[in-house]
Design brief:
By secondary structure, the chain is mainly alpha-helical. It is built from 29 helices and 14 strands.
């Protein structure tokens, strides 16, 4: 036993330091840390994955921490369990730790993971040859990583802190590297990139608890010279398209643009008077003058009250879960009042955190952990739920940070001397109280004298203000262009980049400059060329999901939501319809529109605007024109006049024929979508 203990000590004293470009050590000769050198390799080759030895019970009697998150436990499992049988100090290459993942005479369910000459194998072999130390020299703390361009691809640099000194080292061979889109670019284990196809891919790197990313672009073709407006958003957008070799779609037709504007800002199509007013304006003044008028209306306030209700997970009235309709009704009223009072997004958020009614949006969760996760996903656009169980490699939050943040949301409890005192969150295994601490975003040390709710407000709006703005801008932009740049909107992380990072960065900057006044942000977006581009395919072979759609070279036509559709029918007809909105399923929705009687009931209601056309307009040609302008916000095309005008002219009952035509237009794909 004594000789066995002496072997690693002697090897440690005599083992040389590794050299070579592909085996460059991750630490200087006088330092070594198992957590910075060996743990990353266990994660890189997959040994510590959930489906392998990182699973709850491990594999084959060998258990590692999930994603190599606990270096000390992994070190003990490798070096001490079963009498250290996984290591052979007299013949390191014969160690079970190496032979199993090489499938060298030993069965291994995980297949072959290592091979002689590869970086991971040589690094592990050198570690065993050195006597399997856990740490040599001064203790270092990993403080961050950065992907840096190189001749062949990227190099990952890691920063280590020790006794006030910062050291930067190349850890490319130790990091997990992959591409977000291997149809565009691939990356090997040493950071070498190969471009495969056109588009944009992100090279993603993970080392320790940090993630980093850098884009790789391959143009689709050559861009044409186009006139670029002076709008800052358009300049960023056009530059991005130029880098991708994509040409922007032309501007949408005026009748498409005006309908888009009214639906986005008013929740309905323009009426014939508003349509005429838009057409009569100078071309360059149509959008800005219309927007300036619409954002001051109660209808605009109601539309965005619904949007913000959705952002904060308040369902529509028809979809309230059992026993929640009263609470949600009060919350919907709170959002509407906040819009009427012209509150900024920051002011609305403070109301949610401190107002007795607003607090119910998150306090109805009984578990403080559920509350903290709600704040994370709705206000910051981040998912911290995975950290409830374990430290996850694709996100930065640890289990301890999740618990410490959750502790802020514990309900108050009676104080020994009377009154109330701060609540406590207790660890389920030990019963110890958790000390409240904010997530490590920005300067997360709050000023003194704040209540827990005020502290959370300070954290969301000040310390994590950039993340808050990014989340809200992404959601608002998604409502205006049909899809958010970060999908899913509650999953902002390094490994889930936006499709247009420069656009998102610009909008965040504007949003913060305007003190989170979303009305100014809306105006800034909808007065751009980007907002006004056509959804018509640029090429005959274009389909949904093509590069032009993905990278915003053109708009994607999107269907009206069920509630939008019903509201649009009621607005066009000018009557209330006592029928529910269509279901969510596209097929069920189409069947419902055709067969439920929703449209028919509106058309049969006396005094509808379709009735008014036939009451006051005797000429069939004018009747047809007014029907199209009322329902589709445009004039009928020549082929439509040719097909439908005889129907009105020759019918014994023009009103009946007009109602049938109105039904067809209301049930059409054009009416039920925004182009």
């Amino acid at each position: 036993m004594r000789s066995r203990l002496l072997i690693p000590i002697l090897l440690l004293a005599t083992s040389p330091v590794l050299t070579g470009s592909e085996r460059e050590p991750a630490a200087a000769a006088d330092t070594f840390d198992f957590g910075h050198r060996i743990s990353p390799l266990l994660a890189k080759v997959g040994c510590s994955a959930a489906e392998c030895h990182g699973g709850a019970t491990g594999q084959g009697g060998f258990k590692l921490s999930l994603f190599a998150d606990s270096p000390r436990l992994d070190y003990e499992a490798i070096t001490q369990e079963l009498g250290g049988r996984r290591l052979d100090y007299s013949d390191p290459a014969n160690s079970l730790l190496l032979r199993k993942p090489m499938k060298q005479g030993v069965k291994h369910k995980g297949g072959r993971l290592l091979a002689k000459g590869e970086f991971a194998y040589e690094e592990l072999l050198a570690w065993i040859e050195r006597g399997t130390p856990f740490q040599i020299g001064m203790e270092e703390t990993l403080s961050g990583i950065e992907l840096v361009s190189s001749d062949k691809g990227f190099v990952l640099k890691a920063r280590f802190e020790s006794s006030g000194r910062t050291t930067e080292r190349d850890v490319t061979g130790l990091a997990v590297l992959n591409s977000s889109n291997e149809l565009v670019a691939t990356v090997d284990s040493l950071g070498r990139v190969e471009k495969v196809g056109s588009g944009e891919a992100w090279i993603l790197a993970r080392y320790g608890k940090f993630n980093a990313r850098q884009p790789v672009r391959q143009p689709f073709g050559e861009t044409k010279r186009v006139a670029i407006s002076s709008h800052p958003l358009d300049r960023v957008w056009h530059e991005r398209l130029r880098q991708l070799g994509l040409n922007p779609a032309p501007a949408a037709r005026p009748e498409v643009l005006v309908r888009r504007l009214y639906f986005d800002l008013m929740g309905r199509s323009p009426n014939p008077y508003e349509l005429s007013k838009f057409e009569q304006m100078a071309t360059n003044q149509r959008v800005p003058e219309t927007v300036d008028r619409l954002i001051t209306t109660p209808e605009f306030d109601r539309v965005f009250a619904r949007h913000f209700g959705e952002f904060f997970e308040i369902p529509e009235a028809s979809k309230d879960p059992r026993n929640a309709d009263g609470r949600n009704s009060r919350l919907r009223k709170l959002f509407e009042d906040s819009m009427t009072e012209k509150k900024s997004v920051s002011e609305l958020t403070r109301v949610i955190l401190t107002d007795p009614v607003g607090e119910s949006v998150w306090k109805h969760y009984a578990d403080p952990r559920d509350r903290s996760e709600y704040i994370g996903r709705t206000m910051l656009g981040i998912r911290i739920g995975c950290a409830r169980c374990h430290n996850h490699p694709l996100d930065r939050w640890t289990n301890a940070e999740h618990l410490q943040f959750s502790a802020w949301f514990s309900d108050q409890r009676p104080a020994p001397g009377g009154g109330m005192m701060a609540g406590k969150l207790f660890l389920p295994d030990s019963g110890k109280a958790v000390t409240p601490q904010l997530l490590p975003i920005g300067n997360n040390l709050p000023p003194g004298g704040l209540t827990p709710a005020e502290t959370i407000g300070w954290f969301v709006l000040e310390s994590a203000g950039d993340q808050f703005a990014r989340n809200m801008v992404n959601r608002i932009l998604g409502k205006l262009i049909g899809k958010p740049l970060v999908d899913l909107p509650d999953d902002h992380r390094v490994t889930n980049p936006a499709t247009h990072e420069p656009i998102l960065d610009l909008l965040v900057e504007r949003f913060q400059q305007d003190r989170t006044d979303f009305r100014k942000l809306v105006r800034f977006i909808v007065t751009s060329q980007l907002y006004a581009i056509s959804s018509e395919p640029l090429r005959a072979e274009s389909v949904s999901g093509d590069p032009e759609l993905r990278y915003l070279a053109r708009r994607e036509a999107r269907p009206l939501t069920p509630s939008q559709f019903k509201a649009a029918v009621e607005s066009v007809l000018g009557v209330r319809i006592n029928r529910p909105a269509p279901p969510d399923s596209p097929l069920a929705q189409q069947l419902y529109i055709m067969n439920s009687g929703l449209i028919q009931a509106g058309l049969k209601t006396p005094g509808s605007q379709v009735d008014a056309i036939f009451d006051f307009q005797p000429a069939p040609a004018e009747q047809l024109k007014e029907l199209y302008r009322l329902i589709l916000a445009r004039n009928p095309r020549p082929e439509e006049i040719k097909s439908f005008l005889p129907l009105l002219q020759q019918s014994k009952n023009a009103r009946r024929a007009g109602i049938d035509l109105a039904f067809a237009l209301l049930a059409s794909r054009e009416f039920g979508s925004l182009r």
